[in-house]
Amino acid sequence: MIPTELAATADRILAVTVGLRENGSDQDALDALAATRELTRAVSQLQVEAVAVLQRSGAFAAAGHRRPDSAVASVLTVDRGRAREIVRAAEHVAARVDLQGQVLPPVLPAMAAAFSSGAASLQHVDLIARLLDSPAARRVPPYAWAGIEEQIAAVADTCTPTELARFGAELVRAYDHDGAEPDEREPVQVNELRLTPLPGGGGKISGVFTDPVRYTMIATVIDAKATPLTAQDPRSAAERNADALAEVCGFVATHGDTILPDKAGERPHIAVTVRLADLENRARAACLDLGGTPTPAALRALCCDAKVIPNVLDGDSQPLDIGREARTIPLPIRRAIVARDHGCAHPGCDRPPSWCEIHHIREWARGGHTKTDNLVMLCWTHHQEIHSTEWAVRIARDGLPEFIPPAWLDKDRKPRRHPRTGPPGRSDSTRPTQNTNPGRSVSRVPR
């Protein structure tokens, strides 16, 4: 009954959308835009309550999910972070069940009331739930937190989520003005460096070093290499720093055999994937291991100056067969899987190859071969899911991995693929078969 009612509601919304597109005035568009505020919050309420019901019943755990984030992300086809927002809201503004089966009130009763009335959005709830978990908030006794939460919930409808979180943090700081108990130990230092790949290639590097020695060491090396080449050097200081960092890293990659550790079983390197035809045409097109396409000039320089490990592809863009029957994954085969999957192959996952493991689709102990047509690259989370849930994976006729969701998620079990590999194939000859171990699902690959 519920899916039918929701489908009818969706149809009405689509009809309004079509009418607005064809005959809507500016005022109609403005009214429609304002109305989506309530609609969006109503959908969020439905999602949060649905997740809460499934958590109280233990459905996620019964399906093999240690945490419900991944299951919610698969159902809604959203990023894990978005799924985590929904789960976190369900944990804080929905009724809970304790170990004895007794129903408990929400952790944040005032925010729960604001959320259910539409005064607070999902993001409002998520940010306040995260504030509650902060060290300063944990020092606030429950009776005081209740008053703080009521003040926060009272202004939720007039604040953006960021403004509300800032207001809540100020209230917490006002109560906790003395801070934590004095600690004679050395303060914890924050030293972190974030590498964020960009969709079109390249990436963004940002970091914080509160350790003065480490920061000074890094700054000294970069400063030494960032000196202007001439008085007319057109590069800005930031551009010279970026060039200096790349030059220093390039030097270490070339000459650092004694100081660089192994990574995933091999020395750090730059891998270039290139088609056989392009290789024969002097490598005018290629892609890098972590994403991005170098310019022809950069590719020529890379091939000239660096240690290049080529992954040569055949006419169907598949790695040429490199094989050896063994349980452990030989380095050439791992490189072939990296060239094919480019990271975790599970739909929607963005983990790069360096964060991934190689999974035998048909287990090696059960006769599965260590060959490219029986291997798939998975991050740790999705590797565990393949072994503990009803998800299954197979290699289709075109040689690419595709995943079959469990029946509770999709009754038709329609195959899914990562967007980078294209739409799923339609072959039935690689249909997954159930493993003899309960709760584990594998796919059998024809030899």
* Unreliable sequence segments: 264-268, 300-310, 315-325, 426-447
Secondary structure category: alpha+beta
Coarse morphology: globular
Number of domains: 4
Radius of gyration from CA coordinates: 27 Å
Estimate the strand proportion: 5-15%
> What's the count of strands?
13
**Order of strands across the widest beta sheet?**
6-5-7
The main β sheet shows up as: 3 strands, mixed
Query: How many helices in DSSP terms?
Result: 16
Mean pLDDT: 78
The secondary-structure element order is HHHHHEEHHHHHEEHHEHEHEHEEHEEEE
The end-to-end span amounts to 45 Å
How would you describe the oligomerization state of the chains in this entry? Answer: single chain
Helix content: 40-55%
Protein name: DUF222 domain-containing protein
Region (Disordered): 406-447
Biased composition (Polar residues): 430-440
Domain HNH nuclease: 332-384
Secondary-structure topology with pairs:
Elements: H1 2-23, H2 26-57, H3 59-62, H4 69-76, H5 80-93, E1 96-97, E2 103-104, H6 109-117, H7 122-132, H8 135-138, H9 142-154, H10 161-175, E3 191-197, E4 203-209, H11 212-225, H12 237-255, E5 270-275, H13 276-280, E6 287-288, H14 296-305, E7 308-313, H15 331-341, E8 356-360, E9 375-379, H16 380-388, E10 392-395, E11 401-404, E12 433-434, E13 441-442
Parallel strand pairs: 5-7
Antiparallel strand pairs: 1-2, 3-4, 5-6, 8-9, 10-11, 12-13
Helix pairs in contact: 2-5, 4-5, 5-7, 6-9, 7-10, 9-10, 11-12
